[in-house]
Design a protein that fits this description.
The radius of gyration is 26 Å and the shape is globular. The protein has 23 helices and 19 strands. The protein is an alpha/beta fold. Helix 8 crosses helix 15 and helix 9 packs across helix 10. The chain starts with 5 loop residues before the first helix and ends in a 13-residue tail after the last helix. Helices cover 40% and strands 14% of the residues. The strands form four sheets. Strands 6-5-7-8-4-9 form a six-stranded parallel β-sheet, sandwiched between helices. Strand 5, helix 11 and strand 6 form a beta-alpha-beta unit.
Length: 633
């Protein structure tokens, strides 16, 4: 008879609290193993410290940077979105919090081992924090300190700029700016801000014009550089955390380049930008001792940048280089530890007085101070600290925008009222009412297949993006696996296509790329469709800017047929209509950030398949990502 799996054997080595919480599914084998190993190396025998150490490991696995010790019983889900415990955490024998804190304060794991320099844990009391001490694994504490230090140093000085030239260029790049008494053009404010700050954060939801703003920030900086006699050309880097996001950023900026005087720019992933070295001791070629050779670095989709990656990027940026971080702090964060963008937007702002900013933007702010949409006093303070939030939705408005605002504000009554009122933009359906979803799936599949058979890649892609089925779960009755099979069976049953089976391609086949191939310009998360060319051969069409990009199907490093995808996977994409399948209210995957991300994927219509209780549970539940960055003093 074979014994239990190694991971189970490993978990069974724990006793006491570790054993109980491992059996309940709160701690897994890796959490237990790391805690046992560290305590053994540090000579720690306290059961409370052992338990807290395991929870600190679990916190990182769940996406947090540290463990808020006083809130250790608030168990959510891991960063991959996998529910772990079928047992109500409130029924478990949690230790008394103060005794755990007291044990940690005298632990050799926190104070340093008497037998050597081992100090794997940090217990930090943040200034002004009401939630009590934070317990870090040392690595993540040092990464957070690196981010805090670099941002503070970069905020101590400001670039020298020609204020008159900047104002003139702002008038050129933003001719639609209203007159006195009109609401502020926050894109214009963002561009002016980036001219006078070494670090600028541009936050905004879908459709608020983030890439439009990026292009004009760059055009402004290029024009300013060109006006300086004998100055070399500005060296610009565009980057994003994923290949898909980098490709989208590159295409968007290039589409605008000719109209505003920008050179042709290329975007890369952050790993490529920093020079990933497989097996190298430093991991990245560029670091604080070998800085990136750029004058301006723009990072899009910063919400998906983890704490570890940000701690690598910031020291590698030259102190005299502008860094522009762009993203939506309200959507789902990185699957790795940290929610850096959200922390930066919500936390205190380090900074020094900036006369150039007042000189450039003072008239704009004074002219709009009395308007209802003018910046609040807090927003003005944050503007001077390098942070601006774009609020005007340009891609969609009306009820979808109102629903996004209600979800972001935690207002479930307003959100439910908007969904119940229906109209052309919103609809709420019982989870068993799949008639409308089936109709949209079949319509999109039929239109995509018809276009694919004639070789019309643009029309096939347009049809493919006319509807997307989004799920919170991967498995189970509300998961992608079930709904993907169901939608596929509808398409085959309607005679739209005949799926020849695994390993065969067919016109109209919807695709999801699952791995990167930079040489082939194929990226994890890309979606596409198989089309038939006039000569009868098959190609996969992917969207690249305004023109489809055709590749042979055999060039994909990894690909799957897709009718439904997780909400996590959908980040950065837009569809005419989205159908969102919500699980029951007891699912801890249901969070405000998840629902917000799902509904903001839609351009024209959001269909929610879920109960009122599920919607209320989602809006009430925030993603718990503990961090010390929001206390940056």
């Amino acid at each position: 008879m074979t014994g239990p799996a190694p991971s189970i054997q490993l978990a069974q080595r724990g006793t006491g609290l570790l054993q109980v919480f491992n059996a309940a599914g709160v701690l897994n084998a890796a959490d237990v193993h790391v805690a046992l190993r560290l305590c053994r190396l540090g000579g720690e025998r306290s059961d409370s410290v052992l338990f807290a150490t395991a929870l600190a490991v679990r916190a990182v696995r769940s996406g947090s940077v540290c463990l808020e010790v006083r809130r250790m019983h608030e168990i959510g889900v891991d960063a991959e979105g996998t529910e772990e415990s079928a047992i109500d955490p409130a029924t478990l024998p949690w230790p008394e919090v103060e005794s755990v804190i007291s044990a940690l304060r005298v632990s050799p794991l926190v104070m340093g081992s008497p037998a050597g320099p081992l100090r794997p844990l940090r217990l930090i009391d943040p200034p002004g924090a009401s939630s009590g001490p934070l317990l870090y694994l040392d690595r993540y504490y040092r990464q957070e300190e690196t981010i805090r230090r670099v941002l503070t140093e970069r905020a101590e000085t400001h670039p020298m700029v020609d204020a008159k030239l900047v104002r003139r260029e702002l008038d050129r790049l933003f001719p639609e700016q209203g007159g006195p008494g009109e609401p502020p053009d926050r894109q214009r404010l963002a561009a002016g801000l980036a001219a006078t700050q070494w670090t600028t954060v541009v936050a905004g939801g879908p459709g608020t014009g983030k890439t439009h703003t990026i292009a004009r920030i760059l055009a402004l900086l290029v024009a300013h550089q060109q006006a300086m006699p004998g100055a070399p050309a500005l060296r610009i880097a565009l980057a994003a955390p994923t290949g898909k996001a980098a490709a989208r950023l590159q295409e968007s900026v290039r589409e605008q380049a000719g109209d505003i005087g920008l050179p042709e720019l290329t975007a890369a992933t952050l790993h490529r930008l920093l020079g990933w070295q497989r097996g190298g001791a430093g991991r990245f070629r560029h670091n604080e001792f070998n800085r990136l050779p750029y004058d301006v670095i723009v990072v899009d989709e910063t919400s998906m940048v983890s704490l570890t990656m940000m701690s690598r990027l910031l020291p590698a940026v030259r102190p005299d280089a502008r860094l522009v971080l762009v993203g939506d702090p309200d959507q789902l964060a990185s699957v790795d530890a940290g929610a850096v963008l959200a922390d930066l937007v919500a936390g205190p702002v380090p900074g020094q007085p900036n006369p150039a900013l007042d000189d450039i933007l003072g008239a704009d702010l004074r002219a709009t101070a009395s308007h209802p949409d003018a910046l609040s006093a807090r927003e003005r303070d944050r503007l001077r600290g390098g942070i601006v939030r774009l609020t005007r939705g340009r891609r969609f408005g009306g009820r979808i925008a109102e629903l996004a605002v209600a979800i972001r504000a935690g207002d479930s009554d307003t959100a439910l009222a908007l969904l119940a009122d229906g109209g052309d933009e919103l609809s709420l359906h019982d989870p068993e009412d799949i008639t409308a979803v089936r109709t949209d799936v079949l319509r999109a599949a039929r239109e995509a297949t018809e276009a694919a058979l004639t070789g019309d890649a643009s029309a096939a892609l347009t049809a493919l993006e006319s509807h997307r089925l989004l799920c919170a779960h991967r498995q189970g009755p509300y998961g992608v696996e079930r709904w993907d099979r169901l939608a596929g069976s509808w398409v085959v049953g309607a005679g739209i296509t005949t799926d020849p089976g695994a390993g065969h391609w067919y016109p109209g086949q919807p695709l999801l790329v699952t791995a990167n191939d930079h040489e082939a310009r194929v990226y994890n998360g890309d979606t596409g469709v198989i089309i038939r060319l006039p000569d009868g051969t098959l190609r996969a069409a992917l969207q690249r800017g305004t023109e489809p990009y055709l590749v042979h199907p055999t060039q994909f490093p990894g690909v799957t047929t897709v009718y439904a995808m997780t909400i996590h996977r959908s980040q950065g994409s837009q569809y005419d209509t989205v159908s969102v399948v919500l699980p029951g209210p007891e699912s801890t995957l249901l969070t405000r950030e998840l629902l917000y991300t799902a509904i903001t994927r839609a351009r024209h219509h959001v269909r929610v398949l879920g109960t009122e209780d599920s919607i209320r549970a989602a809006i009430a539940r925030r993603v718990l990502r503990a961090s010390g960055l929001r206390n940056r003093e």
